[in-house]
Amino acid sequence: MSKVKKIIPSFFLMTALCGCTTQSIEDAKNIVETKTYAYRYEYETEQNGEAITQYHEEKPTNTDYVEDTEENILYLQSKASMLKFMKMNETFTNGDCEYKVTDVIATTYRDYAYELVNDEYTEGMMDYLKKIRNVDDNGYLTDKEYRFIWVKLNIKYNGRSSTKLNMSTSLYVKKNDKLVSYGSYLIESKELWLLPDSEEKVAGRVAVNPGEEMDMWICFKAKYNSGYTYYMTGSFGYNDDPRLYTGNLIELNIEDKE
């Protein structure tokens, strides 16, 4: 069966870090996680055509901008034995798919997206990115502690019928030998950019066909420190209580382009 290669962008925002955990089973009880508002969300289109994202436990916003959510603490209850640590370029499976993370780029420049994402997706993508606050007139983040973190993910679908994959994911950071969870929320998926009147309400849905292979760019906005080690959750589609997350954590080797 022939393979089709394509690039699909997807977006997430990250709030500030807090709390701590270790990788050991003994200390896993102490894992701390920030508040995650959009592990469930609703995407709506107003009559005037404006896209509105409504976050879990938050009132929907009616502004023209996307803002980071308020930080709160949640305690991850999963034992370390239920977390699998992996490296970039290491193939792993989730459902009927094989995945591997191949590249990670951090930048303060919003418009760097044009160098990464296929032209067919850039218009809708940039319409949304331009609504993010704290970006100057030249497209750079004003707070230099933050970065747009782009993660390139290769996906091979081995299922027997066409479907939509839920690609929800989030970040962790290793600080002083402890793992700290960043609260995250999905901005938009490809389907919702191209179809603003779509009835699809599930975070990060990406359509795939049997035998299809693709590269997908996932974008986060997060605080960045080169002294820390970052991880992305690889058990995609996890939309429930973030305190109970179990599964893959992929270590990210980030190339910082500032």
Assign an overall shape: globular
Strand residues, percent? 35-45%
Radius of gyration: 17 Å
Largest sheet: 7 strands, mixed
Highlighted features:
258 residues; mainly beta; 7-stranded mixed beta sheet; 6% helix; 38% strand; signal; Immunoprotect_excell_Ig-like; DUF4352 domain-containing protein
Q: Can you offer a commentary on this structure?
A:
Residues 14-75 and 183-203 have low confidence and may be disordered. With 258 residues, the chain is mainly β. The protein has one domain (7-256). The protein has two helices and 18 strands. The protein has helices at residues 119-129, 190-194; strands at 7-14, 32-34, 41-45, 51-55, 73-75, 83-86, 92-94, 97-107, 146-157, 163-166, 171-175, 178-181, 184-186, 205-208, 213-223, 229-233, 247-252, 255-256. Helix content is 6%, strand content 38%. Strands 1, 7, 8, 9, 13, 15 and 18 form a seven-stranded mixed beta sheet that branches. Strand 7 and strand 8 form a beta hairpin. The radius of gyration is 17 Å and the shape is globular. The longest helix has 11 residues, at 119-129.
